[in-house]
Design brief:
heterodimer; A: 251 residues; alpha/beta; B: alpha/beta; 4-stranded mixed β-sheet
């Protein structure tokens, strides 16, 4: 299948390894990955902070970049949920009926990576190898807005060498919330400490999720504590093979 | 409301709250207990999702036809011997209630829990007119005796533990000996209140529901103190927001299932008091219904905001909210706290009072998931954020957001910005992480490290492989 990759602005800038892993994984599964180069950002930060109207040019840009795509896949549950749940709401008061129609037509073709693999392609064994003790944090957007359900767990369960441990109070928000982490710094950090306590309690080496932004929050806290526990996007775990661990265990 | 000098924005008040370990433990334990109980009893109902949908559509239907239903209710109440008063705002409602009390020469009134009267600050108005209000709901009594303010719409004294309540009762009720056993604390309150029930001539209540076809008003509570207020005094005044209507008696079937399971995690509510007008020789001989607008019609006129009026005040959203669990209710600086408070307060009291509240959420969606009448609280939060941004003047955030859009709408500019940031971050980077900085970076890095921007973006990598 021809898969158009929406990398998202923060993966492009801060977590290129997540995008690279997504490409490697999809190509290993026999798909052709395309990267429309004029894509940038879905406007989530703007709409969630109260600047919905400002985000409209970004919606227009996205539609232009991905108009011809068969499916659009992104390794980010929050950006996909922004596209799926917020865009039409953002456009409600604009008179641009063409754009509204284009968005409505495009939205069903946009997939979060794990949902694409399990629900659209019907596979849960992607042939990955990852010999680590891993816990999975279901981010709020993947859990409630996208309802990814068991998809990530089914994928993780099939990864060879991986020891999957359940995260206590998994459904609790980590306290990121985009600009919330800065505007309500104290509350955000209080939520983060509880999430870190849960992660550390599992004695996992790696905490994974479907969203680099939540992982940036949890990982940033764990790094400050010098805990040694790392956050790794699910795409990177799924892209890993035995070859990656042959020379000096780099992950 | 606090004076301008006192901290009153959510971040300011929350800062104080999250540092209070006792408070965090009290709130955390209490919300966790109710949360678990609620989840258990909701899971027992096979058609819970259909019930939620029924609740939502009933509320929506009623609100769409509110003009007609209000008139129907007025007619039914009047026919049953009650008197209906219309109050455009809090000031009008307070004047109406105070005048009724004066006409009956009431020096004291007893009250059964009503957040609506807190919303309009009725107690202050009564006191100013020389009338002493006595709260009879146990938690409200604790708040009143302690000169405190409510921190939860259903459990107003949730921030207090038993030891604190024991100490307060001993001091305020003049008791020499008292244990902190809940039954002993309740008995002390009962002794204190009993005399009021038997002597005070007038009661003021809130209303959970107003049934339009029969003119019946309903108050739902757990202690029976409310039942005493609603039946013993000669005069009963109920203050009800105009959004509390349900069209018919049959519709109560839906709400009396949704409410107790969502609020206290009980299958059935202990005391459901319903009364219709007056009955000679039984119960209050004079009944007044004050129908309060207080900006509710403005909320109704707002397409996205109007779903807020579906709220049946169950508090499920507070108990499940991760923000509320850490900050407690006082951080919301309102009689309505938690997620529902974050959307209701700015709409009822105006953005001047509450511009920081729509931002007091990570938009995690747990509130929407549990809401028995399906209020999409995250959607309304975002809607109100837009309104808060629109009314704020020029500031750094607006400047930065505008710059970000120009950058994101131009891939070349985004790449240039990435390159500049890579250089600019250098003084702050150690071992691949940023651990300090200025502006928003400082707020982030106080407790969290931030990964530094790596040398190669995804875009760069994509180009190299072709």
């Amino acid at each position: 299948m021809r898969v158009a990759l929406f990398i998202t602005c923060y993966n492009d800038t801060l977590f290129p390894q997540t995008g690279i892993a997504t490409v490697r994984l999809l190509e290993r599964l026999g798909h052709t990955v395309e990267f429309p180069e004029d894509q940038t950002c879905c406007g989530q930060m703007h709409s969630n902070t109260g600047y919905g109207d400002e985000a409209i040019p970004l919606i227009r840009r996205f539609v232009k970049s991905f108009r011809d795509a068969e499916v659009i896949v992104s390794p980010s549950s929050s950006c996909v949920s922004n596209i799926r749940t917020a865009w039409l709401r953002t456009l409600a008061d604009t008179g641009d009926e063409t754009l509204k129609r284009d968005v409505a037509e495009l939205v069903p073709r946009v997939f979060e990576l794990s949902q694409f693999l399990v629900e659209r392609l019907g596979i849960d064994d992607v042939g990955a190898y990852y010999p680590r003790r891993v816990t999975y944090h279901p981010t709020c957007n993947s859990l409630r807005a996208l309802k990814v359900g068991e998809a990530p767990m089914r994928l993780l369960a099939k990864v060879r060498g991986l020891d999957l441990v359940e995260l206590p109070d998994a459904r609790e928000c980590c306290g990121f919330g985009g600009t919330f982490a800065v505007k309500n710094e104290d509350t955000s950090v209080a939520m983060l400490s509880d999430k870190m306590r849960s992660v550390l309690g599992t004695r996992a080496e790696v905490c994974t999720a479907l969203d680099s932004s939540c992982l940036m929050h949890i990982g940033g806290g764990l790094h400050r504590l010098r805990s040694g526990v790392r956050t790794v996007h699910l795409a990177e775990i799924l892209a890993s093979t035995e070859k990656d661990f042959m020379h000096g265990e780099r992950r | 409301m606090a004076s301008a000098a006192e901290p009153h924005t959510f971040p300011q008040l929350a800062k104080r709250a999250v540092a209070d370990t006792q408070l965090r433990r009290n709130i955390g334990n209490a919300t966790q207990t109710i949360r678990t109980k609620r989840a258990g009893v909701v899971a027992e109902v096979p058609d819970w999702e259909e019930l939620r949908e029924a609740g939502r559509s009933l509320k929506e239907h009623t609100l769409r036809n509110l003009d007609r239903y209000l008139v129907q209710l007025e007619e039914a109440v009047t026919k049953a011997g009650g008197q209906v008063h219309w109050a455009r705002d809090g000031a009008e409602a307070k004047r109406i209630v105070t005048e009724i009390a004066k006409r009956h020469s009431a020096k004291e009134v007893i009250k059964v829990k009503s957040i609506t009267t807190e919303e309009i600050k009725l107690n202050e108005a009564l006191e100013a007119a020389g009338i002493r209000p006595f709260e009879t709901d146990l938690a409200e009594l604790i708040i009143q005796l302690g000169d405190d303010v409510s921190s939860h719409i259903l459990v107003p004294a949730i921030h207090r533990n038993r030891a604190e309540i024991r100490e307060l009762f001993m001091r305020k009720l003049g008791l020499a000996e008292l244990s902190d056993r809940p039954s002993d604390l309740t008995a002390a309150a009962r002794t204190y209140l009993r005399e009021k029930f038997l002597t005070v001539p007038m009661a003021v209540s809130g209303a959970n529901f107003g049934i339009c076809d029969t003119g019946t008003i309903c108050v739902v509570e757990s202690e029976g103190n409310g039942r005493m207020c609603l039946t013993l005094p000669k005069v009963l005044v109920s203050v009800m927001g105009i959004e509390k209507l349900v069209p018919t008696w049959e519709d109560m079937e839906v709400f009396l299932q949704l409410l107790p399971r969502s609020s206290t995690g009980e299958r059935m509510n202990p005391y459901n008091s319903l009364w219709t007008g007056v009955t000679p020789g039984d119960g209050p001989q004079e009944f007044h219904l004050v129908l309060l607008d207080n900006r509710r019609t403005d909320v109704l006129a707002d397409r996205t905001g109007r779903q807020t009026l579906n709220c049946i005040r169950c508090s499920a959203c507070l108990n499940v909210c991760p923000v509320y669990a850490r900050t407690g209710g006082h951080a919301y600086h309102s009689e309505y706290q938690g997620p529902i408070g974050a959307i209701l307060t700015p709409q009822l009291h105006g953005m001047d009072e509450a511009a920081s509240l729509p931002f007091a959420s990570t938009l995690c969606g747990a509130c929407y998931e549990v809401c028995p009448v399906k209020i999409n609280i995250p959607e309304v939060l975002v809607h109100l954020r837009t309104r808060a941004v629109a009314r704020s003047g020029f500031n750094m955030e607006k400047l930065a957001m505008g710059a970000a859009i120009r950058m994101f709408d131009n891939p070349g500019l985004l790449e240039t910005a990435q390159k500049i940031a890579r250089v600019a971050q250098r003084p702050f980077v150690s071992d691949g992480y940023i651990t300090g900085g200025v502006g928003p970076l400082r707020q982030w890095t106080r407790a969290r490290d931030l990964p530094a921007i790596p040398a190669q973006s995804f875009r760069d990598w994509w180009r190299t492989r072709r």
